[in-house]
């Protein structure tokens, strides 16, 4: 007996239901197998990580393919700005979306970061309005996205970013899809952590390399400093002057070095050639030397080929500077201290030389004083002491006298000594600086010597040259001293004069400067006053009258005037000086005054 058709259909339906369930489970398991296979492939890529950007891009592509969505992208979290920046995309068509930055507190991504859990929305337009932001909305609209799912990429303490997938149609995401995307996000977290770890390791390695390089450079600097220190000590002990200091620094620091005196003149150099800026210091370099004097430190310079300077100072005294040129390497802190130490050594050498020079100066000053005093009983002792200094007194036939302010006489004597050879005798005597020298051995330009000494002490100097007098230095000094006193009385300075120019005035007005001033005022003072009040030139007529032996005719010819004009002027002189001015005694006095006054004007004009 056959079963009814409706009963058979129901039975078939009941038997088919388990089959369909089995088929669905089989599909799910196959999909799961595919997902696990993809996750394992991703894990292998992580284990073989070489290029983190490439692995991240591959992971985002897998998320795109495995999730069956229209778009997948990864946003990296910036812990400083709290922004989320799109780093990798797959399936994106909008350039603006590929460079999207999500501000803090905005968009679905911020919710994922704040909650540290997966978040999704079936329709982004229905999402909470307080989370919307125009830039995000424009980027989402440009991609045409409707539904979004995001899962956080986490470490134990921080959020590294968010992995997103999106559809251009409405979609409800299943728990399995959320779990799959979370697994991929974990892989992305590993990549980002590994990248950061590698970056930190690279930074640590770079820092270690820099520290090693700094330590190596410091050790090299220290070795240079030790070498320089040892050689500078030897330079001081050997008494070799400034040249070893310059040579030691130039060799150790690989650059030109110059030592200058207080007037910026180069007195020693090494590592030649010197740059133009080291030979002729500009304002920038001079200012740096002043700064070094004030601070006591080496000062870096970048001007005219000058790299650094260090002043040579001892207390308030300034002796000069070390000038360093440019080199192949930058001077480090130890190098700068080395230069400062060299400057201190150079200042010590200057003090050492000054002490030795001071002792020699005292010996020579005592010797020249005894020589010029010319005491017969001490002559043999003077000759013996001179021979000890290598000086032959019989060769000394010339004298030079310098009138210098008292506090500068020692400095002036040293400056004068540097212009003369060792066979000359320089010292201080009776308030003057005196040099006795052999004219045949060393011709002397007195005016050039005077200018050199004046430049050394930065004050005007008067030089007096007496006649060459073999075996008569004492009388030559007396004549020079009288001339110097007369020049001082005439208020002249900064000139070079011969004693012959002032004879016989120096014999008449030896030491009394006030008497000289009174004499000139009493003799021709009234004529000067008359000329000043009336803009006349009676003094010129008086001078010509004296020079022409009191002859009106010869005076008229000399001045190119008519004789009557000269006679009229002589009448005015009668009114000014009195009728007796042409008498013998008064005329003699007027002649001396006029000639002396005229000589003073000539010297002033010549100066």
From TrEMBL:
Organism listed in the record: Plantibacter cousiniae
Signal sequence, renumbered to the chain: none
Domain GAF, chain residue ranges per copy: 51-202
Protein name in the entry: PucR C-terminal helix-turn-helix domain-containing protein
A Pfam family recorded for this sequence: GAF_2
């Amino acid at each position: 007996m056959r079963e009814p058709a409706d009963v058979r259909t129901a039975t078939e339906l009941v038997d088919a239901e388990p089959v369909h369930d089995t088929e669905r489970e089989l599909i799910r398991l196959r999909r799961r197998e595919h997902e696990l296979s993809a996750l394992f492939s991703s894990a292998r890529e992580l284990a073989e990580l070489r290029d983190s950007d490439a692995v991240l891009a591959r992971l985002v592509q897998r998320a795109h393919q495995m999730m069956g969505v229209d778009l997948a992208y990864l946003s990296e979290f910036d812990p400083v700005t709290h922004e989320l920046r799109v780093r990798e995309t797959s399936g994106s068509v909008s350039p603006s979306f590929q460079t999207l930055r999500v501000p803090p507190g905005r968009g679905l991504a911020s919710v994922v970061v704040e909650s540290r859990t997966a978040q999704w929305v079936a329709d982004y337009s229905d999402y909470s309005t307080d989370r919307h932001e125009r830039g995000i909305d424009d980027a989402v609209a440009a991609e045409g996205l409707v539904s979004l799912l995001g899962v956080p990429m986490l470490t134990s303490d921080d959020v590294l970013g968010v992995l997103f997938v999106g559809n251009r149609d409405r979609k409800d995401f299943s728990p399995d899809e959320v779990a799959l995307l979370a697994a991929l996000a974990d892989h992305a977290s590993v990549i980002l952590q590994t990248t950061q770890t590698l970056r930190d390791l690279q930074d640590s390695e770079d820092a270690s390399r820099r520290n090693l390089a700094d330590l190596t450079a410091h050790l090299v600097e220290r070795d240079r400093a030790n070498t320089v220190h040892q050689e500078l000590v030897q330079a001081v002990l050997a008494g070799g002057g400034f040249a070893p200091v310059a040579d030691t620094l130039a060799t150790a620091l690989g650059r030109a070095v110059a030592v200058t005196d207080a007037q910026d003149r180069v007195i020693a150099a090494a590592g030649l050639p010197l740059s133009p800026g080291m030979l002729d210091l500009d304002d920038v370099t001079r200012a740096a030397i002043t700064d070094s004097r004030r601070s006591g430190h080496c000062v870096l310079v970048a001007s005219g080929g000058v790299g650094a300077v260090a002043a040579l100072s001892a207390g308030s005294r300034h002796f000069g500077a070390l000038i360093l040129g440019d080199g192949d390497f930058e001077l480090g802190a130890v190098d700068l201290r080395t230069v400062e130490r060299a400057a201190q050594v150079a200042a010590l050498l200057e003090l050492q030389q000054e002490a030795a020079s001071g002792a020699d100066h005292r010996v020579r000053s005592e010797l020249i004083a005894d020589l010029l005093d010319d005491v017969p009983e001490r002559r043999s002792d003077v000759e013996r002491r001179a021979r000890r200094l290598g000086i032959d007194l019989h060769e000394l036939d010339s004298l030079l006298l310098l009138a210098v302010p008292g506090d500068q006489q020692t400095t002036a004597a040293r400056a004068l000594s540097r212009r003369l050879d060792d066979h000359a005798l320089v010292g201080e005597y009776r308030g003057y600086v005196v040099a006795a020298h052999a004219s045949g051995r060393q011709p002397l330009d007195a005016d050039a010597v005077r200018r050199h000494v004046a430049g050394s002490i930065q004050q005007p100097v008067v030089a007096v040259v007496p006649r060459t007098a073999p075996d008569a230095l004492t009388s030559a000094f007396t004549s020079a001293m009288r001339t110097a006193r007369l020049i001082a009385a005439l208020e002249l300075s900064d000139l070079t004069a011969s004693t012959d120019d002032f004879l016989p005035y120096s014999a008449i007005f030896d030491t009394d400067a006030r008497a000289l001033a009174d004499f000139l005022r009493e003799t021709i003072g009234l004529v000067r006053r008359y000329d000043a009040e009336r803009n006349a030139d009676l003094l010129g007529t008086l001078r010509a009258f004296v020079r022409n032996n009191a002859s009106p005719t010869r005076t008229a010819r000399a001045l190119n005037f008519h004789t009557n004009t000269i006679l009229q002027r002589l009448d005015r002189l009668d009114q000014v000086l009195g009728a007796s001015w042409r008498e013998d005694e008064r005329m003699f006095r007027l002649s001396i005054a006029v000639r002396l006054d005229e000589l003073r004007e000539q010297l002033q004009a010549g100066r």
